Each structure stands twice: as structure tokens, then as C-alpha cells.
Amino acid sequence: MADQSASGIKTTELTDRIIFYFVDHGLQILTAIFIMGIGVLVARWIGNLVHRWLKSKSFDEPVSVLIVRIIKLLIVVFVGVMALGQMGVQITPLIAGIGVAGVGASLAMQGILGNLVAGLTIIFTKPFSIGEYIELLGVYGQVIEIELFSTTLLHMDNSRVTVPNRKIVGEILHNYGKIRQLDLSVGIAYKADLTTALSTVHDILKENRRVLTDLAPVVGIASLNETSILLAIKPWVKVEDFVFAQAEIYQSVLKAFQEKKIEIPGPRREVHLVNQSS
Description:
By secondary structure, the chain is of the alpha+beta class. It is 53% helix and 18% strand.
């Protein structure tokens, strides 16, 4: 019974303290709530303003959204600290505690912070953008997502590679952009009509809807081999059409050469038998 009485007294004291606090600081609490409301509205307004500015600078939409969210969060945190100060909370010890905790967290999360800083560097320097095809550190693919901590690449087989941002910044980066040049080749016999073969390839490239027309394809003799003339076929296509265009062009070339009797010689080997008894 004594324990229950003591517990009841403590609960009553706590309730009285809360009531007295709200009575004594009622106006300050209302002011803090008002400040928070204004802060949220200001954060939303500044976020929309920054978003329009980023769009005018041709930033990718996911990157723009990410930057806007960070700015809104910083504004809300700043206004929240002001509101706590208005409610009578000592801000100086709070800020000092946050600073000490931040130093300890930064030491414990060096890798994560490294990715964060690298992610911000990628976002603002824009060495590549979403939709472009890049290659670095032995990995390659089309950029489909840029986040604060990592960048995601898409392979032609729809598999994905997630690269930590700190591995990207400061490394040699090959950016193909949003188009790529195919590197195809086909051999024809020396007795074949070279002019007809080249014009046939040009016609095939003009008819293929995946081949870009604003960039002239490279078509010509790549090398003179022992049994064939090797033709180089190098049209430009979009990154997403790279595999499909290659298969379609090879199929069209094979079919057209067969129809026009342009010989594609197969490999030949001469075998000499030495010291063979009768």
C-alpha cells in the first residue's frame, strides 16, 4: 500500500509540473508552434524555388528532388532549434551536444560520410547524368539512379551494379553519353563487287530505324586479310538500342549479301602431311 501511495504521489507531482509548465510557458509554446508552422511554409516555398532553378539548369529530376529534400530538412531543423529556444530550452548545451555527437559519428562512419561528400560532388559537378552510359573501375552500364551514397548502373541484360560514390570521384571515368557507336565487321571475297557491297551496307543502315541519322556511319575497308576483305560497319545508335541494332544489322547484311550473291568466305586451312609412307 505504501508503494502504491508513493507512486500515486509521484504521478500527481509529475502531472502538476506539466500543468504548471504549460500555464507558465503557454504563450511561449504557442509562439514556438507558430514559428514551426512558418518554418515549414518557408521550407516548402524555398524548396519550390530551388526546384524551379535546378530545372532551369537542366539538372536531372531525381537529383533535383534530392537536393530540394536536403534543403527543406536543413531549414526545418534550424527552425526547430529556434522553436525549442522559444519554449525555454537551453540551446547552447544542445548545440554543443550535437557537435560532440557529430564528431563521434563522423569518426565512426568515415566510409558513409565519404560516400555522402562524393555524392554531393557528383550532383553538383555532373560528370555524368541519368541515361548516359559510363565505364569505370572495370564496371560499365547505363546510369539509372544517382543517390547521395551510391550510383546504380544498368547492364544490357537488365542486371544492376551499385557503385559507392567514393569509388567514382577521383577515378578515370569514360562517359559514352546517351549514344554509342557499334563496331561491326563482315568479310567479303576478293572477287566480290566491293562497290555493291558498300552501297548495300549503306542502304541497310538507312532502313534500320535504330540507326541515328544525324551522325554519319563509318563504312569502309577495315583490313585486307588472307582470304577476305574485312568491311567495317560503325553506325551510331542509342544506348538502349545497342544490342538489338547489332543483331538486326548483321541479319540484314547476311540476307542482302546472299540475295546479291556477295560471297562471305569461310575460314580456310591448308594441312600438309609430311613423311607419310605409302
